[in-house]
């Protein structure tokens, strides 16, 4: 278990930033969104028991440059369950008209083209907007309840059958918590929070930091 591989290639993304998302809309919104990205950034894994069997679940959230969404910020998300790739997405947070942070989960062309933990995120710089697809009803909605602590709602869209189950979620600099709710088939056994502690965080790309001069990292 300890030798779980995490080889995401992120160095290229940090250097290819010449056409960075320089001209963004609202400075206050940018600072809010960057604080959110700084908070959710990280890698965490947990062993869960499922009918007597141990299942390992891991999540990586890596802030990265995705030119197709400029001037919006984005992060790469990879979720692995029991040794299988469950999700590989680009998530784009924005401030909604309601003032909350919304985040759209985009699937993209070629998402399965790499081993677990080995996706080269610089590939995302070459994709165009047409390579990404989402469904608005799968957006996360979050709010900062305290510096470096976000609480919100996470629809689990990969389970779309006749309804979308929802998780209540809390993100902090060091951990992430989920609890299943608004799920018509709620299994009482699953009705306990899952708390995942981060092993480490990923740095924000320079191109993002340039957009918010004097940015104060809520997790520093
Ligand atoms: C994104 O991909 C996941 C995993 O394949 C799938 O379950 C989900 O329905 C997809 N979402 C959209 C909006 O296509």
Task: Give a written overview of the molecule.
This is Lipoprotein. This protein has 220 residues and is mainly beta. The chain is 11% helix and 38% strand. It has helices spanning 11-15, 27-40, 206-211; strands spanning 42-50, 53-63, 75-81, 84-95, 101-108, 132-133, 140-146, 149-155, 166-172, 175-181, 194-200. A 10-stranded antiparallel beta barrel has the order 1-2-3-4-5-7-8-9-10-11. Residues 1-5 and 11-20 have low confidence and may be disordered. 2-acetamido-2-deoxy-beta-D-glucopyranose is lined by residues 87, 107, 133-135, 138, 157-158, 160. 2-acetamido-2-deoxy-beta-D-glucopyranose binds at residues 87, 107, 133-135, 138, 157-158, 160.
């Amino acid at each position: 278990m300890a030798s779980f591989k995490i080889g995401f290639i992120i160095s290229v993304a940090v250097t290819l930033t010449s056409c960075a998302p320089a001209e963004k809309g609202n400075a206050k919104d940018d600072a809010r969104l960057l604080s959110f990205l700084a908070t959710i950034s990280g890698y965490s894994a947990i062993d869960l028991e499922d009918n007597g069997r141990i299942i390992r679940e891991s999540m990586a959230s890596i802030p990265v440059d995705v030119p197709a969404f400029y001037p919006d910020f984005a992060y790469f998300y990879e979720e692995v369950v029991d040794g299988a790739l469950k999700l590989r997405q680009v998530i784009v947070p924005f401030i909604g008209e309601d003032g909350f942070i919304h985040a759209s989960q985009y699937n993209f062309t070629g998402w399965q083209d790499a081993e677990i933990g080995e996706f080269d995120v610089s590939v995302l710089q070459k994709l165009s907007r047409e390579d990404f697809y989402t469904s608005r009803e799968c957006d996360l909605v979050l709010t900062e309840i305290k510096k470096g602590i976000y609480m919100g709602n996470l629809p689990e869209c990969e389970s779309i059958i006749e309804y979308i189950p929802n998780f209540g979620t809390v993100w902090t600099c060091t951990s992430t918590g989920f609890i299943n709710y608004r799920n018509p088939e709620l299994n009482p056994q699953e009705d306990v929070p899952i708390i995942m502690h981060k092993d480490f965080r990923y740095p924000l790309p320079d191109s993002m930091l340039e957009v918010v001069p004097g940015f104060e990292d809520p997790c520093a």
